[in-house]
Amino acid sequence: VFEACIFDLDGVIVDTAVYHFKAWKRLANELGFNFTEAQNEKLKGISRVKSLELILEWGGIEKTAEEQQVLATRKNDWYVEMINHMTPEEILPGTKELLESLRAAGIRTALGSASKNATVILEKVGILPLFEVLVDGNTVTASKPDPEVFLKGAEALQISPEKCIVFEDAIAGVQAAQAANMKVVGLGEQDVLGAADLVVSSLEQINMQTLTNLYSK
Ligand code: G6P
Ligand code: MG
Tens digits of per-residue pLDDT, 8-21? Predict the structure, then answer.
């Protein structure tokens, strides 16, 4: 049977994409160009540095490495200002219930996110204690679809990758889980995340039984 679940953060546990969008849009507008929701979609699961590179490319603007550092920090300051106001009401439906039932069943839990702000977000929404292990943008060097983030999670839990189930909303994250040899539940649209072992629109659709069935497939 499966022994651990590893959760992505943004788009799985909380919908921080709206805050990322506001902060990136403000930065793009200051630089003199627009930034759309469709472009924001493409940044899901993508690190801060890589996101900025893409945004500058879309805006047709070149910046030195030092300038990029300043811009990324400016965006992050705005982002942090917004996430500091997050409340437990912002946990996506079904998350807390699932984490609690996993704990009751003795299934281990880890976070596997590209975000460097993961700890503060989990604290703000009040579910930090439900994770045994946090692997985030501060610990990981290779971005999804590289499996590093999930392999580090399994390693820290001392569970073999084949016994882990990953929850992901980004294509790059689904690919990372598969490269790590883990089962993966996609959160979102079937047409986008069809490569996942199971696609649902919300964690409300997941319980111990769905996971046991998925794992024995
Ligand atoms: C997640 C989000 C991305 C974000 C990345 C880094 O993967 O889906 O949109 O760019 O984390 O987040 P950070 O909080 O470190 O800027
Ligand atoms: Mg995500």
Answer: 999 999 999 999 99
Q: Which residue minimizes the CA distance to atom 1 of ligand 1?
A: 45
Backbone angles phi, psi at 110, to 5 degrees: -140, 155
Instruction: Fill in the DSSP letter of residue 206.
Output: -
CA-based radius of gyration for the chain = 17
How many Å lie between the centroid of ligand 1 and the Cα of residue 217? 32
ipTM of the complex as predicted: 0.98
| Contact in structure between 46 and 143 (CB atoms under 8 Å) | yes
Through-space distance between the first and last CA atoms of the chain, rounded to whole angstroms: 11
Beta bridge partners of 5: 109, 165
Query: Between helices 65-83 and 48-59, what is the axis angle to 10°?
Result: 110
**Closest protein CA for atom 14 of ligand 1:** 115
Task: Report which bound ligand comes closest to the CA of 82.
Answer: 1
Q: Average pLDDT, stretch 25-44?
A: 95
Please say whether the beta carbons of 214 and 165 come within 8 A: yes
User: Residue 92 carries which DSSP code?
Assistant: P
Model pLDDT, residue 81:
98
